[in-house]
Specification:
The chain has 417 residues and is an alpha/beta fold. It is 54% helix and 13% strand. It has 13 helices and ten strands. It has an eight-stranded mixed barrel with strand order 1-2-4-5-6-7-8-9, surrounded by four helices. The longest helix is centred in the first third of the chain and has 98 residues, at 29-126. The radius of gyration is 41 Å and the shape is elongated.
Length: 417
């Protein structure tokens, strides 16, 4: 619009100028027209020159702005590179310091393992012959109680305590959410000794605290190794009632966990229902102390459902394990106050999560889903396997000491205790 007005004004001005020349100099129309054409050409040339000069100035100003912006961007880029270099260096230094700390902790743990193993012989020499009323002498491969005691002693002395893992999955996705860590002793000839075989002798002999501590060290090692790989994992670590009630061993256990409380999100300590129900004020205080460090607690081997849920939660428990068959057909025998389909909600109101264990077939899973059970464990989802045979844990396969080799065995059903 501006250009049109400008052109119209120019035409009017040129016409007026031509008329003025014609009147002043009395030129004929041809001469006047020629003069007018020359004038228009001159004006156009002047306007074009002025326009080019103005555009050049604008271009120069734009170029100056671009150069200034480029310098600003370069300065900011240099500043960003410097900050990235500083952050990278800080991360590297922090990572190196963290790796050194973890390595130092692992070395310290290895030292504790050796110390425990070296103390086993002295404990065994002090242990009186174990009497187990109401049963025949336990045996392994035909070996009676004295031979079994010797096998346990040598397995502990020589650090042949293996870590086995069994997955705990979420339902209905069946995604692995946790692992349960289980102890297996190994004799000199490679035979795997199950808890049902060694606990009944190791416990009266005062050796369960040694077994529990070795399992704990293994759990700490696996979690530390995985943390180096930036992998998140939570492991259930079983602690026997004998260790919980041991006035010497459990305070040492608490002190150890106090110095490793940064693992609170990764290790869940598990105690049997009998041990929790039999806990005296001292043991209750110890459980609360462990929970106050941030560690979650789990109750397993649950056979009765008429226990005090509020007390259980106050002690720091977050998980309750219950055999699937109890949910499906044994609620009355377990003295349950509610129907199976309402049990999960009852636990949830007290801040407790229910884990159905010993799940071995798809029919059971369908029934558990009808009860809205969130977590399950059993041979259907995976049997206990040595650490090296768990694919998800391959990055941590060296968590066990170099002289320990977990041997694969035929599946053995998980037994209480």
């Amino acid at each position: 619009m501006t250009d049109i007005l400008s052109n119209n004004a120019s035409v009017a001005a040129n016409t007026a100028f031509g008329w003025l020349v014609h009147q002043t100099f009395r030129l004929d129309l041809v001469s006047t027209g020629l003069a007018l054409v020359l004038l228009v050409i001159a004006v156009l040339q002047i306007r074009s020159a002025l326009f080019r000069n103005r555009r050049m100035r604008e271009i120069e100003e734009d170029m100056a702005d671009l150069r200034s912006a480029n310098l600003t961007v370069k300065s900011q880029l240099d500043d960003t590179k410097r900050k990235i270099a500083e952050v990278t260096l800080a991360i590297a230094e922090k990572s190196e310091a963290r790796e050194k700390k973890i390595a130092g902790e692992l070395l310290a743990i290895e030292g504790l393992v050796r110390e425990f193993a070296s103390n086993v012989a002295a404990k065994m020499k002090e242990a009186a012959p174990v009497k187990i009323p109401g049963s025949s002498l336990p045996s392994v491969d035909g070996k009676a109680q004295p031979a079994m005691l010797e096998i346990i002693r040598r397995s502990l002395e020589e650090n042949r305590v293996d870590l086995y893992l069994q997955p705990v999955v979420s339902l209905p996705q069946r995604k692995v959410r946790f692992y349960e860590a289980l102890s297996r002793l190994r004799s000199e000839d490679g035979a795997v000794i199950m808890p049902a075989q060694f606990v009944r002798i190791a416990a009266p002999a005062g050796l369960m605290s040694v077994v529990d501590n070795l399992l704990l060290f293994r759990c700490v090692q696996i979690v530390r190794r995985l943390s180096q790989k930036q992998r998140e994992v939570a492991v259930f670590c079983n602690i026997s009632g004998h260790t919980l009630s041991d006035p010497e061993a459990f305070p040492q256990f608490l002190d150890f966990m106090h110095h490793h409380r940064d693992l609170a999100g990764h290790i869940i300590f598990e105690f049997s229902q009998d041990a929790v129900l039999a806990a005296r004020p001292v043991e209750e205080a110890n459980l609360r102390y462990l929970a106050n460090l941030g560690f979650r607690l789990s109750m397993d081997q649950v056979t009765k459902l008429d226990f005090d849920l509020a007390r259980t939660r106050r002690l720091g428990f977050h998980f309750i394990r219950l055999r699937a068959e109890t949910l499906l057909s044994g609620m009355e025998h377990a003295n349950a106050a509610v129907a199976a389909e309402d049990l999960k909600d009852l636990f949830a109101r007290h801040g407790l999560s229910l884990i159905a264990e010993c799940v071995e077939n798809e029919k059971t899973v369908v029934q558990l889903l009808e009860y809205n059970i969130d977590f399950a464990q059993g041979y259907l989802f995976g049997e206990p396997r040595p650490l090296r045979d768990v694919p998800e844990m391959n990055d941590a396969r060296h968590a066990q000491t170099s002289n320990v080799t977990a041997l694969p065995v035929e599946p053995v059903r998980r037994l209480a205790g």
